[in-house]
Automatic annotation (TrEMBL):
The chain crosses the membrane at residues 108-126, 177-199, 211-230, 236-258, 270-296, 308-327, 470-490. It comes from the Bacteria. Pfam families: PMT_2 (PF13231). One of its GO terms (cellular component) is plasma membrane. It is found in: Cell membrane. GO terms for molecular function: pentosyltransferase activity. It comes from Eiseniibacteriota bacterium. The keyword Transmembrane helix applies. Residues 167-311 form the Glycosyltransferase RgtA/B/C/D-like domain. It is a multi-pass membrane protein. This is Glycosyltransferase RgtA/B/C/D-like domain-containing protein. Its main location: membrane. InterPro entries: LipidA_mod_glycosyltrf_83 (IPR050297), RgtA/B/C-like (IPR038731). Residues 1-42, 63-75 have a biased composition (Low complexity).
Length: 532
């Protein structure tokens, strides 16, 4: 069937015979002197057909009546024009509510506000304005105040301040800036910790969106906002809050770099990993882990020489941050090192007194407080203590080689425990705090673990089976690294805190997958796994 011509379309060209007769008739009507010889009819090009339609032929034009354009009555046309004018006028007069291309920051601000409020509330209820530092927080507080007072990175000794390399420098330095502004206020230092901890959920949102998508990112961010461990450890003057934030930030930069590799981004990744290492030296091997993880994806987007160049830029960024601190420690201790006291912590977790107490196995004690180590360490420098501690720890491990599996199991059980207390953890709040009575009735970590950890296990399965498993594998790889450190050193909630945002990411991936399956089953659909 031939297509009908459009209304008001260009008429089809007349046949040649018809054109000749029309020209002869016009010539006959002229006066005798003005008649001209009939000219050959000029061929007219066929009218262009509308896009997607065949050109009309003479036969089609003669056989099919062109369709008329539907016209509205005059009143209806005027009303339509008036309505269009009003609609256009209303849209233009309203004005843009937000500049084009700018994201809506209100959900992000709400996330940060809730995170900060929970952490500040914990600081207020657990410690109060009259908080006093103790244990490791006392050491960090002294370092920060000595820095703020101009006495350098030093601890208090019997004969006055002495320089040390036993504490990572990032958190004391940040706290010293606050002390320099407001004075020596331990409660102000706790509020700084709360602010640093509140930065973690927005960073998790960005990391989760880059790895898994926006829904998973938002779920993980809100999980981190209310996470009992992340809230609680943001209320102590320790390294956990700063290191957790720095770790998530470095991972976010690494993921962004792999998705769009650039030399400047590679250098920035190295700088951020160096910053995370200054918060806690256990992050030092992670740039190498990131480079190994990124090796295959980078090969798909850049040339081999450029890939090597960008990996080298990461190493350069790490060195730019860490070498000055190592040079400082060389001048202070005589050893080019990031931190002393690492071997001493190794002995704290691997000694006969600890292993002989079944209630404390898998944890740690202080070798400075037990014999024979107290005598061995007396009068020694930090480097000498490290040398003695390393030798004593390995001597104990070699003597108990048959019990290594039991030691590893005890440390893993403490590291991944689902309850708040593991035995010998000490006080975590002021004795007058109302949180103590509430925690005695309901263990928030137990409730959290029963809900979140199964979802995280399901999320890990989905990552392992998913089409983007290599790209998303950075999350379980970092979790595995910190779990291995717990087997080597000691198991506990404190060394587990930095990976809790990553556990929340896996839990969010599991929750999002479960939500998707429920919605599909509710609509009568089924899931068919595609080929890899």
């Amino acid at each position: 069937m031939q297509p009908a011509c459009r209304a008001r379309a260009a008429p089809c060209a007349p046949p040649a015979a018809t054109a000749a007769r029309a020209a002869a008739a016009r010539n006959a009507a002229r006066p005798a002197g003005s008649r001209r010889a009939p000219a050959a009819p000029r061929a007219r090009p066929p009218a262009a057909a509308p896009r997607g339609r065949a050109n009309c032929t003479a036969r089609a034009c003669g056989a099919v009546r062109p369709a008329r354009r539907a016209t509205a009555p005059p009143d209806a046309a005027r009303r339509s024009a008036t309505l269009r004018g009003r609609m256009i006028q209303r849209a233009s007069s309203a004005g843009p509510s937000r500049a084009a291309g700018l994201p809506d920051l209100r959900p992000w601000l709400a996330l940060f506000a809730v995170s900060l409020a929970l952490r500040v509330g914990f600081v207020w209820l657990a410690h109060g304005p009259g908080a006093v530092p103790y244990s490791d927080a006392e050491q960090l507080d002294a370092l920060a105040w000595n820095l703020a007072s101009g006495r350098g990175f030093a601890l208090e000794g019997a004969s006055g301040p002495y320089p040390t390399a036993s504490v990572p420098p990032l958190m004391p330095w940040l706290t010293s800036l606050l002390y320099r502004a407001v004075g020596h206020s331990y409660f102000a230092g706790l509020l700084l910790q709360a602010a640093l901890g509140a930065l973690t959920p927005p960073l998790v949102l960005s990391l989760g969106s880059a790895l898994f998508g926006s829904p998973v990112g938002w779920i993980a961010a809100w999980l981190c906002a209310v996470h009992p461990l992340l809230v609680a450890f943001s209320g102590y003057l320790l390294t956990e809050a700063a290191f957790t934030t720095a770790l998530v930030l470095a991972l976010l930069a690494s993921v962004t770099w792999v998705k769009t590799p650039r030399p400047g981004r590679a250098l920035g990744v190295g700088l951020l990993w160096g910053l995370a290492t200054l918060a806690r030296p256990t992050a030092l091997p992670l740039p190498a882990l990131v480079a190994a993880w990124a090796w295959v994806p980078l090969g798909l987007t850049v040339r081999p020489a450029e890939r090597l160049r960008q990996i080298a830029l990461i190493a350069a960024g790490v060195a730019i941050v860490l070498v000055p601190w190592c040079v400082r420690n060389l001048n202070v201790t005589g050893t080019f090192t990031l931190k002393t006291a690492g071997p001493k912590a190794f002995l704290d977790a691997n000694n006969p007194a600890l292993w002989a107490d079944p209630a404390r196995r898998g944890g740690a004690n202080s070798a400075f407080e037990i014999e024979p180590y107290r005598t061995l360490f007396r009068g020694r420098s930090e480097v000498e203590v490290d040398s003695i501690a390393s030798a004593e720890a390995w001597k104990f491990l070699h003597a108990h080689r048959a019990e290594w599996p039991a030691m590893a199991a005890a440390k893993l059980a403490r590291f991944w425990r689902v309850t708040r207390e593991g035995g010998g953890t000490g006080a975590w709040a002021d004795v007058r705090s109302p949180l103590l009575a509430a925690a005695a009735r309901v263990d928030p970590l137990l409730v959290w673990s029963c809900v979140v950890l199964p979802c995280a296990a399901w999320g890990l399965v989905r990552v392992a089976r998913g089409p983007r498993r290599w790209f998303q594998a950075i999350v379980p790889l970092v979790i595995l690294w910190f779990t291995a450190l717990a087997v080597l050193y000691w198991g506990g909630l404190r060394p587990r805190v930095p990976i809790e945002p990553l556990v929340a990411l896996l839990a969010a991936a599991g929750l999002d997958e479960a939500r998707r399956l429920v919605r599909m089953r509710g609509r009568g659909l089924s899931v068919i796994e595609g080929g890899r």
